[in-house]
From TrEMBL:
Alphabetized InterPro entries for the sequence: Leu-rich_rpt, LRR_dom_sf, LRR_N_plant-typ
Signal peptide from the UniProt entry: 1-26
Superkingdom: Eukaryota
Full protein name: Leucine-rich repeat-containing N-terminal plant-type domain-containing protein
Organismal lineage: Eukaryota, Viridiplantae, Streptophyta, Embryophyta, Tracheophyta
Organism for this UniProt entry: Gossypium barbadense
UniProt cross-references to Pfam families, sorted A to Z: LRR_1, LRRNT_2
Keywords for this protein: Leucine-rich repeat, Repeat, Signal
Leucine-rich repeat-containing N-terminal plant-type domain segment(s): 35-73
Gene3D superfamilies: Ribonuclease Inhibitor
Amino acid sequence: MMDSKWLWFMRMAAMSVLLLLEGCRWCTIDACVEHERVALLQLKPFFNHYNEFDSWDELKGSDCCKWKGIECNTTTGRLIGLSLDSMRSGYLDYWYLNASLFLPFKELKRLYLTGSGIAGCVENEGFEKLSSTFRNLQFLDLSQNHLNDSFILSLSQFSSLQYLNLAYNLLEGKWPHIQGLNNLKILKTLDLRWNQMERFQSFKDDDKKLELTHLEELNLEANLFNNSVFATLDKLSNLKSLSIGFNQLNGLIDMKDLDAYLLVIYVDMAIKACGL
């Protein structure tokens, strides 16, 4: 009799341990992952704005999840958000980023690099090296930098992107890199305002079309587009908002170029007569 009670007790104890271990899978992690903390400190010298990194404590064991600009997954402690907006002194001091420095952040979902003076990437160390690692990157803000057209090709493999901001850069002319954008199949928001873009055009000198079927918001403000741009947008079947003020629009907008979707259009006073 005693043996059966003892056996029952041991079984219950074993089950309790198993349940405890199972429950720990959902425990909240209070500190960041150590190799990610080290990687963040390696980024620090390149984003050197005074006072912005006061919370980035270099002492071993410091919880980087509590640092300014850092967002962590509360379950795993892995980095999911990194904001380095305007965290570099001397906005006009242009420089080339080694994108490989971001490789340790494998669960990153949001990356903000606004106003960092980035003119491109170090040769062979561009954003294309991150595409196989950043499978969850959804939000990328590279606005207010010094990036040119060729940089777009390095972003073409980020298939998980839903938001891309390239406003206030140096994108210009008859834009041949449209295919790099068309590879971003699930993109929902694209901001290209305040560049020098004239039209979407392929290398064969024929007009190309944006084919982002999930795109809902497109901002083309303050570029050099004329009325012909509307004919290149008719495959954006889910577009809900188009901002195209301060361009070179003139005369009537032909509604047959827009009848594939219902959207709100923001235009400027350059349009003399609008058939909307």
